[in-house]
Amino acid sequence: MPKDIPKQISVVSLWAEDVPATAHFYQEVIGLSLCPCQGRHMDPPHFDVGGAYLTILQGKSVLDQNSNPFPVIALTVDDVDAAIERLKAHHIDLLKDVAEDSDARWGFVRDPGGNLIELVHWK
Fold first, then answer.
1. Sheet holding 46-49, edge to edge
2. Euclidean distance between CA atoms 111 and 44, whole angstroms
3. Residue 88 CB: number of other CB atoms within 10 A?
4. Whole-angstrom distance, CA of residue 123 vs CA of residue 104
5. Per-domain boundaries in the chain
6. 10 Å Cβ neighbour count for 67?
7. What is the DSSP string of 65-117?
8. CATH annotation of 11-60+70-122
9. Cα(75)–Cα(115) distance, rounded to whole angstroms?
C-alpha cells in the first residue's frame, strides 16, 4: 500500500451533552476500555477500540435523531446475541429487532448522547 494512503481510522469523535453518562455507557454497558494514557493529555474520555480511539466530546449530537437512519459508528462484536444480552442487563433496549443478511447480523441502540450505534457481527 502506498505510504500516502490512510490505512486505518485513528480517532472517531462523538458528542454528548452529558459526557460522564455517555462515557459510562461505553465503558460499563458496551464494555470498552479507557485508553491507558487517559488523564495525561487526553481530557475527554478516549476508549481503545482495536487500536483506534473513540472519544466523547462535550456538545450536542450533530445528527438529527429522527431523520438519519445510519449509525454514527458501528462496533464489531463476536456475538450479537451476547452483546444484546449485555445491553438488556443494563436496561438498554434495541431500537428494533436484530436484522440479518448473508454477510452480517446487526442491531441498533442510542447512546446517552443520542448517537445511533450499531453492533454488528460479520459472518
1. 11-16, 52-58, 46-49, 33-34
2. 16
3. 11
4. 5
5. 11-60+70-122
6. 6
7. TTT--S-SEEEE-S-HHHHHHHHHHTT---SS--EE-SSEEEEEEE-TT--EE
8. 3.10.180.10
9. 13
C-alpha cell at position 115: 448517537
Cell numbers representing residue 19 in the block: 459526557
DSSP 50: T
Q: Decide: 22 and 56 in contact? Cβ < 8 Å.
A: yes
- Please give the chain's pLDDT, 123 residues, in tens: 688 888 888 899 999 999 999 999 999 999 999 887 655 555 789 999 998 999 999 998 766 666 667 888 999 999 999 999 999 999 999 999 999 999 999 999 999 998 889 999 999
Phi, psi dihedrals of residue 82, rounded to the nearest 5°: -65, -40
